[in-house]
Amino acid sequence: MEHSFSYTKNPNPHVKRSREMIKKYPELRKLIGPYQRSALYIFLMVGTMLGIAYWCKSLSWPIIFLLSYTVGALIDHALFAMMHESAHNLVFKSARANKIMGIICNIPQGLPSAIGFRTYHLIHHSNMGEEDYDADLAFNCEAKLISNSWWRKCLWFVVFMIIEAIRPMKLKGGSLKDPWVVLNIIFILGVDAAIFFFVGWKAFAFLLLSSFFSVGLHPVGARWIQEHFTFKEGQETYSYYGPYNKIQFNIGYHNEHHDFFRVPWINLPKLRAIAPEYYDNLYYHTSWTKLFFQFIFDKKLSLFSRIVRQIDMKITNEELIENIDPLSGTYIWNTEKSEDQVYS
Asked: What is the pTM of this model?
């Protein structure tokens, strides 16, 4: 087991690859742009979750728990995938409409996370693997505490949603001082209160349990391990090509997504099909369930199984803008980027 992260001074690998790909395959540009039908899927999933929650008011607790794990977690995770699409402005053209869709995704999830996720996820792309900016990286103390203990890893999965809310507090980039954050919080807490008081505690419990399972102790929770945990020396990002992609909006196509995060979920398999030589030689996963148990019980794997990018030079804003990649939205080196810069 590693006792520290693996460090690199290499630039973000997705910048070089995306530039090479677009030069070789200019038709990739046709894949870029919002996919508005995603909005329909969002409304259908939100309605389904609220319908099940209403049904739960007359069910026993064991059945509610079972429904949360087998059905609710899968729908909630799919809603997270759509919230992710919204964060990249891939549902509608305008940022405002996408922010609204992100908040709508939050309705059955119980926690007002859409706008905060949008803020810090964009920084994750522009500053991938940088300790001071990437909320996807564990705290050093977090990784040391969990270590390679199987039961601590299980506990980590259980509380992962809470951990994700705490991690941004360590970051230098991003800010939650945004009217949209306030709107997100007020609206979702209002929905929570309405469900609790007018439908009942069981309905609300179903929604919360589903949310915790969707990012935690569940096979779909392995996606957090799949995306950037190191399974091949030097490789920072990993895709998943398995059956869950069919019901999770191709969220497993993570290398493809980092290369071109302006390409919507519906076109990610097409991207890989056009340029297979860029992905076939990369390590990838085919089973979230297998990966879930592998991470828990393999003592070689821990929260330190990550590549961290070291930056030992200060960059001016002018240099920052010069290094922007207009297609992928990523940069060679990054420190302080606004949402407008990312989408410029």
From this structure: 0.90
CA-angle at 26, arms to 25 and 30, nearest 5°: 115
Instruction: Find out whether 220 and 77 touch, Cβ atoms under 8 Å.
Output: yes
Q: How far is CA 91 from CA 76, 99, 121, 266, in A?
A: 18, 10, 16, 11
CA distances from residue 7 to 13, 163, 259, 309, 314 in whole angstroms, order as listed: 14, 23, 21, 6, 18
Q: Where are the alpha helices (DSSP H) in 236-338?
A: 254-259, 268-274, 288-297, 317-322
Determine the 3-state secondary structure of 243 from DSSP. Answer: helix
Residue 175, token pair as written in the block = 């800010």
- Residue 247 to residue 289: CA distance in whole angstroms: 15
d(CA 69, CA 71): 6
| CA 205/CA 224 separation, integer angstroms | 24
- Report how far residue 2's alpha carbon sits from residue 299's, in angstroms, rounded to the nearest whole number: 10
Tell me the pLDDT of the chain (344 aa) as tens digits: 667 999 999 999 999 999 999 999 999 999 999 999 999 999 999 999 999 999 999 999 999 999 999 999 999 999 999 999 999 999 999 999 999 999 999 999 999 999 999 999 999 999 999 988 999 999 999 999 999 999 999 999 999 999 988 888 778 877 788 899 999 999 999 999 999 999 999 999 999 999 999 999 999 999 999 999 999 999 999 999 999 999 999 999 999 999 999 999 999 999 999 999 999 999 999 999 999 999 999 999 999 999 999 875 443 333 333 444 444 444 433 333 433 444 33
Structural domain boundaries in the chain: 6-334
CA distances to 296, 322, 336 from 251, rounded to whole Å, are 22, 30, 27
Quick count: other Cβ atoms within 10 Å of Cβ 344? 11
